[in-house]
Amino acid sequence: MASSTYELFVKAMVEEKQVSCVFKRSPRVLSVIMLGHTDEEERALTWQTGGESSKPLPPAGAWRAVTLAEVTEVSLLDSKLRRGTRKSGTQHWVADVDLDVNPDSPYQPRRQLEGLRRARQRR
């Protein structure tokens, strides 16, 4: 069963919104790019566009690998999802990819965002 944080990250991806949260004791603004699991641990690959970080945050943002168990105070923002610069190589943070905002994802996500979006529109 998915955590409430996981479900809110899914909602952010479906609605193409950013999330505000606290991760590793720092407030962050994140765009969730990829969501899934590694060894049953909920994980996300995100693009951080605001907030604080242990490393300086470049003006355009930076990639952040997030363990959802370490995320608190999550809320959906009324700001558009922002995609990061292309990563070189293969990501290994999320082994079992559930969702990916990239429609041409090479990771074979279990679910497709377009299907989830259509299902929400029918409600």
Question: Keyphrases for this structure?
Answer:
2 helices, alpha+beta, globular, single chain, 123 residues, 6 strands
| Largest sheet composition | 6 strands, antiparallel
Order of helices and strands: HEEEEEEH
Strand content: 35-45%
Number of strands: 6
Give the averaged pLDDT, no decimals: 93
Unreliable stretches (pLDDT < 50, length at least 5) are none
Taken together, the total number of domains comes to 1
The helicity comes to 10-25%
| Overall outline | globular
Query: Rg from C-alpha positions?
Result: 14 Å
Task: Please specify the SSE layout and strand pairing.
Layout: H1 4-15, E1 17-23, E2 26-38, E3 41-51, E4 62-67, E5 71-80, E6 96-100, H2 113-122
Antiparallel strand pairs: 1-2, 1-5, 2-3, 2-6, 3-4
Describe, in plain words, how this protein is organized in 3D.
- The chain contains two helices and six strands; from the N terminus they run αββββββα.
- It has 123 residues and is α+β, with helices and mostly antiparallel strands.
- It has one domain (4-122).
- Strands 1, 2, 3, 4, 5 and 6 form a six-stranded antiparallel β-sheet that branches.
- A hairpin with a 2-residue loop joins strand 1 and strand 2 (26-38).
In brief:
This protein is α+β, with helices and mostly antiparallel strands and 123 residues long.
